[in-house]
Amino acid sequence: MSILLFEGETHAELYAKYRPKYPDALYEMIGNFCRAQGTSGVGVAVDVGCGSGQGTFPLCDTFNHVVGVDISQSQIEQALRLQNLDNKYDASRLSFRVGPAEDLSFREDNSVDLVSVAAAIHWLDTEKFYKEVDRILKPGGSLIVYTYVLPKPDKEEAVQMEAQFYKEHLSEYASSRMFPKLEDYKIPYSDELGLRTVPMNSTLSVHEYVGLITTLSASQTYLQHNPSSAIFDDLTQRLLELYTDSVTKEEIKMFTTSTVTVRTGRKPL
User: Is 1 inside any structural domain?
Assistant: First the structure.
């Protein structure tokens, strides 16, 4: 079954605030795949393990109706909060619900054009999940799974600082499922296009970058065991020393690079 690691209210708030925005090119790729000859179209998309909706909202630009599903009530509450802030995503086209990926019984057989999983496949029971995917997808419907690597700062000293920080403080709290390699996961349909990558680059403040690190499951597990710890404040201060102009004393934005890896499959007609 889906693993409960992101259900805390504070964690969900951090997730909504600091998780990165996926690149437009990713959704262009998804749209092209789902509109290709032999597909069922772009009617209904179900985004599984949706969190606070980072990968769900962009699907509304392609699909007629989108449903985001997550096992965490707190994550869904954050997704609904964000939806209410933007009238572009009204309830007639976008809805969210709490539930496990392995039980999509709210959808009828052969009723969905896309099932997507963004940065969550490693937390799922894929055998049970894929059975549900096959049940609800229309013939010609698409399954798209993608994830990303932690953004890399533009200064090598910052890269080494983050790596040392992770090794010293977070590694013992990390799940073996973290940082999945999608090539290690079987896709239940023909995957003729294979593994593809899309660049994901961002300009972040130091606080935004450290905020992203705090959303990692290893960080949240660490804080559960060490609630009064100031290690993230310390990391912020050390990074600010690297990203502060020596003359103006103003913070310099951090340019980060990352990639999204994508696997695709299509249910046979």
Answer: no
**Number of separate domains in the chain:** 1
Neighbouring C-alpha atoms within 13 Å toward the C-beta of 201: 6
185 domain residue, yes or no: yes
Determine the Cα–Cα distance for residues 267 and 269; give it in Å rounded to an integer: 7
Range(s) of the domain holding residue 177: 9-266
- The CATH number assigned to the domain holding 141 equals 3.40.50.150
* 4 within a domain of the structure (yes/no): no
Q: What is the pTM of this model?
A: 0.88
- Look up tokens 């340019």; give the residue: 255
Q: What is the secondary structure of 216-262 as a DSSP string?
A: SHHHHHHHHH-TT--HHHHHHHHHHHHSB-TTT-PBPPEEEB-EEEE
Q: pLDDT in tens for each of the 269 residues of the chain?
A: 333 344 444 656 776 677 788 999 999 999 999 999 999 999 999 999 999 999 999 999 999 999 999 999 999 999 999 898 877 778 889 999 999 999 999 999 999 999 999 999 988 999 999 999 999 999 999 999 999 988 999 999 999 999 999 999 998 988 766 666 888 888 899 887 889 999 999 999 999 999 999 988 889 889 999 999 999 999 999 999 999 999 999 999 999 999 999 999 999 99
The answer to the question of residue 57 being in a domain is yes
